[in-house]
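Lab notebook, bench 4. The sequencing result for the construct came back, and we need a structural model before the next group meeting so we can plan mutations. Quick request posted to the team channel:

Model the 3D structure of this chain.
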Amino acid sequence: MGGDNYKRLEELMDYLTADEKIISKYRMSVYDVVTTTERLILLRRFPPAFIEIGYEEINNLEHRTTILWNDLLTSIATLVLAVVIFVNERGFPFVEPINNIVGRYIPELANTLPTLLVVQVVMMLSTAASIIYFAKFVGSLSGYFRISRKNRAPVTIRTAMTPELKNLIREIEGQIKQVKERRLRPAPETAEAAPAAAKPEVDIKTELESRIRGLADNAVILISSKSEKHSEVVSNTLNMLVNEKGMGGVYISISRPYESITSTMATAGIPADDVYFIDCISRMAGKGHTETDEHAVFVENPSSLEEVSMYLDRMLGKVPSEKKFLFLDSLSSLLIYNTDKSVREFTHFLINKIRLEGVSGIIFSIEKKEAEDLVKTLSPMCDVELKF
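Done. Here's the predicted structure in token form:
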């Protein structure tokens, strides 16, 4: 793929982690398949969906060609039925049986609905069914690519075994091998590496403490960061609020699944017991099994801003901590799925909600051209603006 495609993808996919890089992009059926250094990402064009698969989750990759002969036979049978109805004038011999069925099960329509019309509807439905089954049969001729996952339903893509698919399979297998090698590789113990990795974290932590620690409980903080620093800034902010200030709150996540966030928090030693989540991406990504968790609610998709607003009071009411916060991650992600106007209205609503409820508000944004005007508009409404 060309460099422009990669650049555009990088701009849209601000949910990439700090060290994650895009390797390749493939277009297969209704999916854009993206391989990164950390995971496999599938963007379904219709209906829109986002699916992420960690390389360590993949059990097996296979391409199969299973020809659906039953669908072909069903297509022929329904087509024959439609033809028989068509060639027999006025639907004979189907008029009388259909008339009896309508009179028995829908008597109120028996005298008002012309039987010939019913026969014509049956003919059209039979024709439509024949076309659908035939399309399924034709689709099966090319086969399908299946990605089997641990403890999850497999992902299936209708596609032939093309050279492009062969390249994708080789690439995924190579990334799986690298993941296994990284796990087996011992961590470096050099004295020089530790300070270099820790330095950005110290700078971010110091800045957050100096600018936020003394603010009022209902202060609104706007934090902008470069994409490569976003995860680190979010982690440090959560650590300060939860571990250092003993606060609990509501985390509105636009582009990262709830399970991914809590996993990152656990790794960083940040307890999530008093943090409740409004997850806007998991249902769109097909992760409905997480809906039983009482610490999270799952919105249909990131465009359902009214649904997010509806859940706010319920989730804030669940937080047991006396001091609470409201976390929005992030403005730039919201702009991918919503118009600029709707995001402005939603953030104005959030800021007013923060003031009225007397909670701390933290609004994140990744530095992108698309979000510049919105950040400039919101900055005067916030108590502090930080940039990293």
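Residues 69-141 form one domain.
Will bring this to the meeting.
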